[in-house]
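Subject: Sanity check before I submit

Could someone independently write out the C-alpha cells for this chain? I want to compare against mine line by line before I put it in a report. The sequence has 299 residues.
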Amino acid sequence: MLIGHTRQLLYLKKAAANGMLGHAYLFEGPKHVGKMTTALEWASSFFPSSERGFVGAGSHPDVIVLSKECHLSEKAEENENTIGIDDVHELRRLMTLSTRVGTHRIAIIDGAEDMQSPAQNALLKILEEPGAGKLFILVSHDASRLLPTILSRVVSMSFSYLSDADMQKYAKEAGVAVKDEKDLLFSAGGRPGVLARLVRDAEFRTEARERKKMLASLVGAPLFENMKVASVIAGDRDAESEFFFGFFRMLREELTDALERGEGTREQALLRNTLRIKRYMDTTNVNRRLALENVILEL
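---
Independent answer below. Compare away.
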C-alpha cells in the first residue's frame, strides 16, 4: 500500500501519458520511505488492472526486480551482499526479450548503490542504448555511490520522510491502537516501511521501545553508563543510524517545546553539533566511538 509521494507518482504518470517518458529514473531518498513501493506502483500502471497484482507480488513477466537479496544470475552467491556484473548481464538478457503484456519491459534495481563497480559499468552500457519500450528504475538511499556517468543518464526524483498527517493516516488504516500511536510514530519517524514492520513484528516493536527508553535515559545518566552506549553501537551502521534518527527526533521535540517557551538556544546548539558530527561520520574515517561519545557528552 502506497502512502504519500502523490506528487512524484502524479508526475511520473503524466510523463508516461504525455509521451515524455525517459528511459531511466533514479528514486533517491532515505531508507524505508516508500521508494520501492512507488516504483512498483508506477510499474503496475503500465499494465491492465488484471495484471497489476502480479507486479506487486514480484511475479509479472515484464517487470524484473534485481537487488542484493534477489539475484538474477545463477553464478551469484546466495549470501552475496552486493550486486555483481553477472546479475547485470542477466538483466540485460532478460530486458532484450519481447514483452508478454502491454508495451513496456521494466527493470527495477532496488539498492542500486549495492552494485559493484564492474556491474555499474555494465549497466552504464545498457543505459546508453536501452532500446524502445525499456524502462529502468534505480532505487537508492545513497546515490553518491553510483557512477557520475550513470547519474547523468537518469531522471532523478527525490523522496523524503512522510508528513505526520500521512503517517497518522497509515497508522489508522493499519489498525494501530490510539494508545500505541504516539510511540510507534516516534519510532517510525516518517518512514512507512518502518511503521509497517512495527505493526506486524512484536519483537521489532519491543526493540524500538527499548531504543526510545535508552535515548531518554541518556539525559542526566552517569557518564560511565552513557559511554557504554557509545561503545555498544559504534561500528554497527544500522545501530548508529537508528541512534541518530531517534536522537534527532528527540531533539526536534525538545526544541519545539523550548521555542514555545521562548528558549531553545541550548537545543539549537546541540542540534548543530550533532549534525556536524554525523556529517563527519558519514564522510570521513573519524573514530566512530569517540564521535558518538562527543555527542553524548553534550547532553
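---
OP: Matches mine. For the report I'm noting this point. Residues 209-297 form one domain.
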